Write the structure tokens for this entry.
Amino acid sequence: MKVLLHICCAPCSIFPIEVLKKEGAEIMGFFFRHNIHPYTECMKREQTLKEYAERINLKVIYQKGYELEKFLQQLVFRESGRCRFCYHKRLLAACKVAKKGNFDAFTSTLLYSKFQNHDLIYAIGKAIGKKEGVNFLYRDFRNGWKHGIQESKKEKMYRQQYCGCIYSEKQRYFKTNNFRTSA
């Protein structure tokens, strides 16, 4: 089976790639970048993926451009549903690439993270796949969470500390006690 794997970052791809290869899948990666903020973070993730993909001989399609402004404009006033919106954007882009490339299925490294909403990813992926005519391959990769972390550390990969968007960055780093009042 020919599978397109949406990859958010190299560390999250380790275990899904291992599983899919064991299943006999022919895998190609797809890196979606429009949601990742700031641009320097996007470039660190992309460079880490390029280095890893080269080491394991994985072909990857890297999305062109950097349409952060468009991504944010479409998200304004939907911030409470930002993950749903972001899942949809990334899975739709992956599905369209899979359709154009005559892949049998598409899936995502989002399914590796214990911090992502698997039920929502599954529902969105299935709906998009049905509409576009490409099978969404659901696998629960979370049981490899620790393995992926250990391997990425062993490989000395750049490991980001938040999902990617400006909102997840704020959620990760902003603490309400960051401000001091002066007397």
